[in-house]
Amino acid sequence: MEAPSLDFKSGASGSPQATSDELPTYAHVQTQKQQSGEGSGAGLAREHHRFLEGAKGKKWLSMFVKSRASNAASLPVFFEGDTISGRVEVDLDKAESSKGVTISIRAGTTFVGQDEELFLKEEQTLWTGSKLTGKYSWPFSFTLPKEVSVKDSDKTGIFRLPPNYTERASPAYIDYKLVVTVRRGFLKVNQTLVTSFGYHPITLPEKPSPLRLLSYSDGSSLIGPEGDPEGWKVLPEKKIKGTLFNVQEVEVNCTLAIAAPLSYAVGSAIPLIITLTGDNTQGLDVLASPSAIQLRLRRGMATGSEATDDNGARRTDNYFVEECGTAYFWPSDESETAPNKRILQGELEVAKTLKSSFKFPKLTIRYALELLEFKAPGFVANEGSSPVLLKEQVTIASRQIPGLVTHSYAPPGYEKSQNVDYNKSLGLLENGNQRFLGHHHMG
Questions:
Q1: Which 3 state secondary structure label does DSSP give 81?
Q2: Region Disordered: start and end of each range (predicted)?
């Protein structure tokens, strides 16, 4: 017999142990399924094998689990509503004292330098006894709850399960794990086999206005706020004041219209309209240059006791912001008929890799569209101007409404701005990814 010893090895069949940074996004998994011809019926088709080896390399403890991942060597991935099932196998040549074998699902929030705070733990007993010997195979099956009861500040509330959140350089993480524990009894160290897995809640955006749905279906141009007031949110007018070519004082009125409802699926485009009006036509022309408009999608990560409070205090140690996308604009044909008005249409593409919005105690993700100061050659904004002219909170959903196909309205061949590197975030810790995956000896 090969007795399991404290110097055992762990691993995954097919490749070295995968890391949390290799967890695919919801959109990536969907794309892989479509490319491979696997529909929703194929479901959890990929089997993952994690194991512990004894001193001589024999796999004495194995965990098999099926998931939606495209690669068996990567970490398992599940969507909301999936059943997490598999089996645990033991192969021992001689009897080993044991108090039992369990498998559990654990989910928790971890902040860099702090212990994990569990918000979910479900456990199943696979075997009980005093001596473990020979070969065993135990099936297991879990269905994750859609909601959990979690303490939030000084009260307890019901919250939807959040997605796993393990981005590089982040100061906080949400980790889901499957843990097999072989209990060794009094004064002996338990032995555990652990794998993290990805969890993706399914969220949908709100349905667009009937007129926008019609435009999407027949490929016609989008109708603006005047003809489709239900389909747009028009933000309050903002005055832009500054100096043009060091000699002219200019004042231009700016209005931003954002496609409503203010919720959008990853992989879709957010329609935008900017209207500039004023008496100085030269100033209008300068500011109406598409490259002068700086509109960004920014993600805010709120941590700590006030994370779920939309009006909570935001400090540099509990609120971290990064840019997630850049809008691009082009002149509208309507501008040609109004000498003192310039209208630009635009879009902001929501990257497929973005995490959806979620609200959860200690770690909440929100998104906002922000119109920044105009940047144009020859124009200098007045001192004291706010760097953010207009801001509007939006919601990012993980999946598009079934049957709804949106498309870009940018002119053919139009050069779009390149999105920023999402990992080069503003205000995030440089070395935040101090995580630990290999908890093989747990109490």
A1: coil
A2: 1-45
